[in-house]
Design a protein that fits this description.
single chain; 12 helices; alpha/beta; TIM Barrel; 49% helix; 8-stranded parallel barrel
Length: 252
């Protein structure tokens, strides 16, 4: 893991640990949110909905404006395709992007190696590459439907170890599995990004494996992806302040 990842993880404030999920329909809505919250949170997530609506140009727009973008497209394809897609994500200036760990060793290893080579050769800052383990909307029944037997936590740990062996910077995992990942990966700088985080004042919506910002942070999470509890709040600044308070309580 490079030194920039190490230093940013160790020095991150409570606000910098918050990634706001821009799960909205238009670039206009997203632009307004970024304008309102930039400087109050660490980064913004662009997922499938907004990327499909607004395209890569909007990703580049935010990156060029100085916003840290987590491109959440969960690349899962043949190794060559994923590696080339990762290079294009780096061209867009994203801070972080993810791949599906179920794509396997060759897919993840090639993505990590080819993105690093491209960035080194072109003087581009290398984005963090993290692997999705098990979606927070999934549970043991979901895994069984796809032919995966066994506990969710064990599947998460298996995939996290594989991602670490492939030189990825970290994983996306539910806050309920964060402690297990942290204790099983022999690298204190391995990043854990957790969706499925719901502050004490919010509801769970469609997430099944959730917990609070304080619990997620205590369990070893580095970054918390939070959408609706912030976006739907009557006072977004107040909501962020409350979330920061929960995170800070776990850090001290």
């Amino acid at each position: 893991m490079n030194t920039s990842v190490q230093s940013s993880r160790r020095s991150a404030t409570a606000a910098e640990r918050i990634i706001v999920a821009l799960d909205v329909q238009t670039s206009g809505e997203a632009r307004d949110i970024v304008s309102e919250l930039k400087g109050s949170v660490g980064a913004f997530k662009i997922g499938l909905q907004l990327f499909t609506a607004a395209g890569p140009a909007f990703v580049r727009e935010l990156s060029d404006a100085g916003a840290k973008v987590f491109l959440d497209l969960k690349f899962h394809d043949i190794p060559n395709t994923v590696a080339k897609a990762g290079i294009e994500a780096a061209r867009l200036g994203v801070w972080m992007f993810n791949v599906h760990a179920l794509g396997g060793r060759e897919m993840m290893s090639r993505a990590a190696a080819e993105v690093a080579e491209f960035c080194d050769s072109n003087d581009v800052e290398r984005p963090r590459i993290i692997a999705v383990t098990v979606l927070t909307s999934s549970n043991a029944n979901t895994l069984r439907e796809t032919g995966i037997e066994g506990a969710v936590e064990q599947q998460v740990l298996n995939l996290a170890k594989l991602a670490a062996e492939c030189n990825l910077d970290g994983v996306v995992a539910s806050p309920l599995e964060a402690a297990g990942v942290r204790s099983s990966i022999d690298d204190p700088d391995f990043l854990i990004v957790t969706p499925g985080v719901r502050p004490e004042f919010a509801t769970n919506d469609d997430q099944k494996r959730v917990t609070t910002p304080a619990a997620a942070t205590s369990n070893g999470a580095d970054y918390l992806v939070i959408g609706r509890p912030i976006l739907r709040a009557g006072d977004r600044a107040e909501a962020i302040g409350k979330i920061c308070g929960e995170i800070e309580a776990a850090l001290h």
